[in-house]
Amino acid sequence: MPIGTALHERTFAACESLNYREWSGFYTVSVYETHHEHEYNAIRNAASLIDVSPLYKYRVAGRDATRLVNRVIARDIRKVAVDQVIYCCWCDEHGKVIDDGTITRLGESAYRWTAAEPNLRWFHQNALGMDVEIEDISEQVAALAVQGPTSARLMRRAATIGQTAAGIDQLKYFRVTQGEIAGVPVDISRTGYSGDLGYEIWIPWRDAVRVWDALVEHGREFDVRPCGMLALDVARIEAGLILIDVDYTSSKKALIESQKYSPFEIGLGRLVDLKKENFVGRAALAAEQKRGGPARRLVGLDLDWNSIEKLYLDAGLAPQVPSTASRVAVPVYKGRTQVGKATSTTWSPTLKKMVALASVGREHAVTGSRLEMELTVEAVRHTVPAIVAELPFFNPPRKTAMPPA
Fold first, then answer.
1. Which of 188, 171, 170 is nearest to 179 (CA)?
2. Which listed residue, 27, 32, 208, 235, has the most CB atoms within 10 A of its CB?
């Protein structure tokens, strides 16, 4: 039975739809209103509040903390400065991805590690013989994402930054600073899962409601709005951001080999540093590169709307835009041969087109390649033209630029 997060008393009161889902054992709002249109528009045009407290969170500290992190992840943590955040993935011994998440370097030998799924046992297994403490702080630290073009102005109004820390205006992309909101000590990182300007606030669990209330109060003039998972799903697909159990399967849960993915197969090759000391999966990943790279790749697909429209007209129906992003995998073809699958599909309100994330054979992954994707209209399966596109589909300069005054 799911339980409420630290912010449940506020999110429940705001959730008119009562449309919830389970996320890591917690109640999570799918959509606050009957449709997610206003919530999506808040992410792209104003400011949104998203309760991401169900993320698994771990604190890793001790003399061998850096050694452990470097043994597990594919990136080189020694290149990461204190108060810097990185996105990373970690693999099994065969070079297949177990999970992905962020690591914040809180000190020389202290880290906060987030994950989509439970990883405590894996971390402990790799820490044998090391002087390191690994603590599951998932229910000690709440997390609240503030995303959207006015989020910097809202944070400037709501947060007080200490004298020795960088202010919100100076906080760079994938950096973290310490401050207060409503008198509550918080960490503020310039990170998020929306592909837009945004921040994530790490809050003591018992004080999360005070921070929420302050952001709502200060955010009125910035049109802040609580947002659920349906709106975030559309935004993350536009941003080309993958989701575990949708765009790839953890190697720990895969039933067959084809369900396992290397970082190079899901667009995370940039997160692999084969020049660093040995890490779990390094030999397999090096061998994959020596063979010429992965056999399949993650790509974007631009779907031909005129063809979609014609299918509906031929069926005697008005053309329909899917109301929510699809997480159902559908085949991708080249002629009559299946060459991959689309795993996440959505209508992009900002780009005014249908887009998808897909895994296709590398010979078909060249930008501009013409493929076809399966589309069902009135229980009849069809295919529509799709052009391979560079990811991300949406990448505004404000995401990484210093926010305007």
1. 188
2. 235
